[in-house]
Structures are given as structure tokens and as C-alpha cells.
Amino acid sequence: MTLFLFVIIVAMVLGLIGAVADGLGWLLAIAVVIFVADLLLGFLRLRHLRRRPVR
């Protein structure tokens, strides 16, 4: 869970830098890709945890 949150924070910081700094639009694009990939992996992990039988 901490890795998930850390990657979200890194993506937000990269996106902010990419949006503010002139000529670093590619950094904003990378941040969006990282953010979407992290959300997808988090969703898949959460879905996998729900399928385990409760003992």
C-alpha cells in the first residue's frame, strides 16, 4: 500500500513540474501514464485480494 501511495505522489509531483515548467510537457505526459498504470495495478491487486476465500 505504501508503494502505491508513493508512486501516486511521485506522479503528482512530476505532473506539477511538467505543467509549470516551460518545455517540460513530456514530463506531464509521463506522469499521467505512471498515474494511470498505478491505478490499474492497484485495482487489479485489490480485485485479486477479494477473490481469496475467507477462512
Quickly list its features:
single chain, 55 residues, mainly alpha, 2 helices, elongated
Layout of secondary structure:
Layout: H1 2-20, H2 25-50
Quick structural overview:
By secondary structure, this protein is an all-alpha fold. 82% of the residues lie in helices and 0% in strands. The mean pLDDT is 84.
Q: Alpha-carbon distance between the termini?
A: 23 Å
How many strands in all? 0
Which structural class do you get from the secondary structure elements? Answer: mainly alpha
> Which regions have little confidence, pLDDT < 50, spanning 5+ residues?
none
Number of helices: 2
Describe the biggest sheet?
none
Beta percentage is: under 5%
Oligomer: single chain
The helix fraction, in percent, is over 70%
**What's the gyration radius in Å?**
15 Å
- Gross morphology is elongated
Overall pLDDT score:
84
- N-to-C series of helices and strands: HH
